[in-house]
Fold:
Amino acid sequence: MTTRTKIAGAVLGAAVAGALALVPLTDDHSGGDAESSNADSSGVVLGSSEKEAVPSFTATDWVSYGDRVAVVRVTAEHERRDPGEETGEETGEEEYLSRTVDLQVRELVWARSDAPALPSTVSFTADGWQVKDGTKKELASPDTSRLEVGHDYVITFARFSDGAWSPLGSGGVLPYDHGRIGEGEFQGETVTADAYRSTWEERLVPGDEEPMAFRTAGKPATGVQGILRSATPDATAARYFALDPAARYEKVAGAGEPADTFCSVAAPLAVSEDSRLTPDELAAVLTDLAGLAGPGGKDDASALRTYATSLEAGAGDSASADDTARKASAAGIERKCGTDVGELLPTDTEVDAEGGAGTDGGTKG
Structure:
């Protein structure tokens, strides 16, 4: 297996304009750069998180926003530099080198009714390389495949507003070597179908729809076809199939407004915001955050729900709150968003009998 360097920070992958645009950040909070925490110069640099324009992990996502699903093989990759772009050697700094990949369509698996025809070959931007001091490392996004030459994949494709085709999102790319989903390249490493399924099993959130990666691991592509044929698209998305996936999702999210994300909901909890929240109000925010934790946030969701429940049960008394869940919730928010939430206690409490001010949990003691 290759060695990965974790990058603590946001790796933003947005499936817009027919491309997966990746903007890497390399602060790993280790007291040095990302490379210093990994002596293996051939290692894959793995980003810690990503944000996308369209949801892509579940069968509902695929039939709501995808156009075609196909088995493909990556036949070539190319470095891509914008005209006039300075290199890391010229600036003396770490740089991100973009990459495009060429795919050959080998088998059509599923199509949305009235979807446009998928070309026999497709090219788009994928995760590239981190370059520093003349050393080039492969960069990969978490919970998805990097798309490497010679490997096969099952991909749900979408045609975006500019007419270009690309994967719907990171959840719409499944390894498929040897005719088994989960077998092949994942996060820059070669994995078995059993290991792939185990990875996704750890990410399951009770009550949430299971990701396609988990549901189809170990199966042939026909397994995807069967699931999608019985899946029902989001009702709002179905009314806007004439729009491209990003615009369609905006309709689903609400009148063109950006959908709430984990970090946007958590933002008012920041110490710098000086928000005033009662125990019940804080519990409501924490419950919303638990629902937005995503496939990889099972532990965070559990801590958030536990803390929220304890606040509600305490009838406004933050002293009775679950302290372990509170600390885990605060740590999870700070890890995901880089937001300082202090002690994560209610900040709008009643004045006590002595006339003193209520607890201000938004600042650290």
Summary: Residues 1-42, 351-365 have pLDDT under 50 and may be disordered. The first strand starts at residue 4 and ends at 7.
